[in-house]
Amino acid sequence: DIKGFVFDLDGVITDTSVFHSQAWHQVADKVGAPWSKELEDGLKGISRMDSLEMILKAGNVSDKYTDDEKVDLATEKNTNYLKLVDQMTPDNILPGIKEFLDDLKSNGYLISLASASKNAPKVLSKLQLADYFPEIVDPKSLSKGKPDPEIYLKGAELINLNPEQCIGVEDAAAGVESINAANETSIGIGDPQVLSAADVKFNDTSEMTLANIKNQMD
Ligand code: G6P
Ligand code: MG
């Protein structure tokens, strides 16, 4: 029986995936790497330094930058990203998410957060959703990022559940892969072609209700 939900943040709870993309696009332009939908989708769920490396590789310029210069590029991206986060309000919560979280709470489901973002606590506080997520996986504690199962295994552990008792919710292919490898049930929200590996699929957050999930799991 399902007893808990482990959530990704960016692109699931809120529309910050657009902000991440915008800030990375600037970096890609700066280093002369081509920007594409494939690159944009591939960056979702990936840690800050791994994302930078993917962009540099896409432009064949990884060798042109020293480690210090790479840290500077990633820091500049984060500064630009945080300028966008600073303007966030609860209006940036994606459609239906608040209602879904309330429904989970009133039905006794446990909730944790499995985001690769070091900015997750800040984003949750801007959304005034921090109270819903007392348990957050610390991305600094991870030895491997998504698609490795580690982050979703820790998300289950934080709420004292076995992976089989958890549903993971994602907007990224790397994240769905991580959930599946952790032996949790996966929900993919967004482009069904990108998220074909998900057990349960929704085009949009507004479609994610307990009833609709049960329907697809039967
Ligand atoms: C999430 C986002 C990625 C982002 C990563 C690291 O997984 O989907 O786009 O790169 O977190 O975020 P951070 O805020 O720590 O740079
Ligand atoms: Mg995401």
Give a brief rundown of this model.
This protein has helices spanning 16-31, 37-43, 48-58, 67-86, 97-106, 120-126, 150-158, 173-181, 210-217; strands at residues 4-7, 110-113, 166-170, 185-189, 200-202.
> How would you write the strand order of the largest sheet?
2-1-3-4-5
Fraction of helical residues: 40-55%
Principal-axis shape: globular
Classify the oligomer.
single chain
Strand content: 5-15%
Description:
The structure is a single chain. The chain is an alpha/beta fold and 218 residues long. It contains nine helices and five strands; from the N terminus they run E-H-H-H-H-H-E-H-H-E-H-E-E-H. A five-stranded parallel sheet has the order 2-1-3-4-5. The protein is globular and about 50 Å long. 41% of the residues are buried. 6-O-phosphono-alpha-D-glucopyranose binds next to helix 1 and helix 3.
SSE blueprint and pairings:
Layout: E1 4-7, H1 16-31, H2 37-43, H3 48-58, H4 67-86, H5 97-106, E2 110-113, H6 120-126, H7 150-158, E3 166-170, H8 173-181, E4 185-189, E5 200-202, H9 210-217
Parallel strand pairs: 1-2, 1-3, 3-4, 4-5
Helix pairs in contact: 1-3, 1-4, 3-4
Magnesium ion is lined by residues 8, 10-12, 17, 44-45, 171-172, 175.
